[in-house]
Amino acid sequence: MATQLKAGVIGAGIMGAGHAREFNANPHTELVGIADLDEDKANEVAACENTTAYYSAEDLIAKAKPDVVYIATPDPYHRAPLTTVLEMGIRHILLQKPFATTVEDAEAMASLIETYKADVYVTYATRARSESAAGKYITESGLIGEPLFASMRNVDNISVPREMWADRPNNWASESSSVPFLYSHRIDRLRWFYQPAEVTSVSAVSRSEILGYTTDFVESFLTWTSGLVTRVHTGWVDFGSQLVYCENLFHGSKGMMTHNETPAFGRPTAGFQAVFDHIEFDDLRQAQAELLERGIGTRLFWEKPNAKGIPGTVPGLEVIPNARETPLTDYIVDAFLEGTDCPSSWRTFQGESSLPTHRDGLEQTRVCCAVEESARTGDVVCLR
């Protein structure tokens, strides 16, 4: 394949516009067009990104002839454009998360992808952040011991469904919820950290008192094949001053990791910290050195805790925020160019870890749909 790929984007919303910018910034891609059924939106993004507007996926592919297509349509509307793109000969595809909002769609999409032998990556963007990469490394290296429990909370301000999407036809959010929109990121992170473990059962509750047309929040507990237990909470009705709030705790038999992905309550920045029950200082320094080789800077600490009555020291590390992260899109472009799920740029950053493919998307959809089913019926849903 050539080292310069022609790229097109289907969907001119917030995410599509952002991915168009990513293609324009990547030296290996040329943005050749953006398509949307809403002609005004297509024209607006095309003008901003100095490219051509199209008003259907078919026109974009037939006239611009892209090598790579990014599908950034709203949550429930991925199957139709993916089918079109595959049937028109495109074999290198990026798909905005969630993969799908129903198991029926997800299984049909996965079958088509495998029939056409296409390379399709789902853009769970948080995988490309330094804090996530550090968490993956610490978990896999066994520094916090056997995984026991994880808790994740990810909520959007209520202005997201009420205002940001108010101009969408029939408000597409009514056909989605915080589960495919936010939970998809959380389940992908958990599966990525704890592979090869998979979810065995789901128990969830939800309420729909505020928005009415979709769930306000979902609270869930998941059990895993490894014995791990995880709690995940997502919602669309946060009344605070932030657009997004996200906090994560990963607990093991020898330590734990805390990752606050967004600043809140007076904290000037987000942060990632790992603390350990027992660890040799040389082992901690070795971990720091290996993370630095991956481009992830850390600070070590070895100090007494502030709380009274807790003896000894608390060794740990915290990730130094990276002001300029490489977007996941760039790693996926490298994957297309090199013909592998783990291109050299990703391997340098993440080690021997695959980029998220349609197979991850299919499993993410199965788990998310099980969560929604459990919340709707009140039953425990078993996946395995």
What does this structure look like?
With 384 residues, this protein is an alpha/beta fold. It has two domains: 5-126 and 328-357, Rossmann fold, CATH 3.40.50; 129-322 and 369-377, 2-Layer Sandwich (Dihydrodipicolinate Reductase, domain 2). 36% of the residues lie in helices and 27% in strands. It has twelve helices and 16 strands. The protein has helices spanning 14-25, 39-48, 57-64, 79-87, 103-115, 130-141, 159-164, 178-194, 281-293, 328-338, 344-350, 358-377; strands spanning 5-10, 29-35, 53-54, 68-71, 92-96, 119-123, 147-157, 199-207, 217-224, 229-238, 244-252, 255-260, 271-276, 298-303, 314-319, 381-382. Strands 14-15-13-12-11-7-10-9-8-16 form a ten-stranded mixed beta sheet. The protein starts with a strand and ends with a strand. 46% of the residues are buried. The mean pLDDT is 91.
Features:
single chain; 384 residues; alpha/beta; Rossmann fold; Dihydrodipicolinate Reductase, domain 2; 2 domains; 10-stranded mixed sheet; 6-stranded parallel sheet; 12 helices; 16 strands; globular
**Number of structurally distinct domains:** 2
Number of strands: 16
The major beta sheet can be summarized as: 10 strands, mixed
Oligomer: single chain
CATH superfamily annotation of the largest domain: Dihydrodipicolinate Reductase, domain 2
Strand order of the largest sheet: 14-15-13-12-11-7-10-9-8-16
Level of helix content? 25-40%
* SS strand fraction: 25-35%
Poorly predicted residue ranges? none
Order of helices and strands: EHEHEHEHEHEHEHHEEEEEEHEEHHHE
Count of DSSP H/I helices: 12
CATH architecture of the largest domain: 2-Layer Sandwich
Q: Indicate the CATH class of the largest domain.
A: Alpha Beta
Determine Rg (CA atoms, Å): 21 Å
- In round numbers, the mean pLDDT is 91
Main structural class: alpha/beta
- CATH level 3 topology of the largest domain: Dihydrodipicolinate Reductase, domain 2
